[in-house]
Amino acid sequence: MGNDQNSAYGFGVETQNSSGQTLDCSFYSLGIGNAGNTKISEEFKAQLGEDNIRKVKKVSVELKINLQDKPKDAKDVYLRLHLLSHRLVKPNEINLEGIFALLLNVVWTSAGPCEVESFSQVRLQLQNKFGSLIVYSVDKFPRMIDYVIPEGVRIADGDRVRLGAYLSPGTTVMHEGFVNFNAGTLGKSMVEGRISAGVVVGDGSDIGGGASIMGTLSGGGKEVISIGQRTLLGANSGIGISLGDDCIVEAGVYITAGSKISLPDGNIVKAKDLNKANNLLFRRNSQTGALEALPIKGSWGGLNSILHAN
């Protein structure tokens, strides 16, 4: 990002607990660079005030941040997550260092975010008021669709996409797919497996059912894993290296950086030596059990254009 793109702004509503700590923030006006003359709308003014049942207060919030600096507080974190899900910044372009320590565990409910410590009492009062109450999760991150619904995407189960996910138009996330924050798709993609934090998937690629991509929070350390264009991860496969364009990982095959891979010329290399290589098929030899990488000619067929006409 250029120097003129390092700053961002946001205007919205913050939910605070009785101690003044941030439970969540929802930004209705945000962007890169300098803000214009933004006035709080009447619709958002109506959201402000205290909720005596949930024991929270909703206040207006106005932020100006430097995206290359570490986040300073929870409000700062929420603005960065919103920017990602609004597709105003891409994964790994902004500083998200230390965000877990800045966020509280929150009870995410159909009545709004609630403090964990007082929730036993709050639950009964909310049930008495509304007749029923849905608890979606107890987590530091909320569901993306409660804050941002990007244009041109399909999400079969909202619980499976965290706020801070980046989903390009034409992306479909099926029921068993999962997309973490600071991760996502850079074009039309089918997601039936797990896209971990820090991972980006290229246009036309398919993450098969139960497939897993190792991220910066799941054992990958600071190594950023990426998937190229028109690449297929078969069902229940997994990778710990980056793949280039037009690759296939056979169903059930897990490739880590240290996996020993047999090549057609008889040489054996570590998988990390094939990092970001194009046009490779990774498979397990059904007779010897050895992991192999073979060159691919042509393509695996690509995504179903009808399914991705979102």
What does it look like?
The two termini are 29 Å apart. A ten-stranded mixed β-sheet has the order 8-10-13-16-19-21-25-26-23-24, with no helix packed on it. The chain has a five-stranded parallel β-sheet with strand order 11-14-17-20-22, with no helix packed on it. By secondary structure, the protein is mostly beta strands. Helices cover 10% and strands 31% of the residues. It has helices at residues 42-45, 74-85, 99-102, 119-130, and strands at 7-17, 22-32, 49-51, 56-66, 106-109, 112-115, 135-139, 154-155, 165-166, 172-173, 178-179, 183-185, 190-191, 194-195, 200-201, 206-207, 212-213, 226-227, 232-233, 238-239, 248-249, 254-255, 260-262, 268-270, 280-284, 291-295. The chain folds into two domains: 3-139, 2-Layer Sandwich (Alpha-Beta Plaits), CATH 3.30.70.2010; 149-295, Hexapeptide repeat proteins (UDP N-Acetylglucosamine Acyltransferase, domain 1, 3 Solenoid).
SSE topology sketch:
Elements: E1 7-17, E2 22-32, H1 42-45, E3 49-51, E4 56-66, H2 74-85, H3 99-102, E5 106-109, E6 112-115, H4 119-130, E7 135-139, E8 154-155, E9 165-166, E10 172-173, E11 178-179, E12 183-185, E13 190-191, E14 194-195, E15 200-201, E16 206-207, E17 212-213, E18 226-227, E19 232-233, E20 238-239, E21 248-249, E22 254-255, E23 260-262, E24 268-270, E25 280-284, E26 291-295
Parallel strand pairs: 8-10, 9-12, 10-13, 11-14, 12-15, 13-16, 14-17, 15-18, 16-19, 17-20, 19-21, 20-22, 21-25, 23-26
Antiparallel strand pairs: 1-2, 1-4, 3-4, 5-6, 5-7, 23-24, 25-26
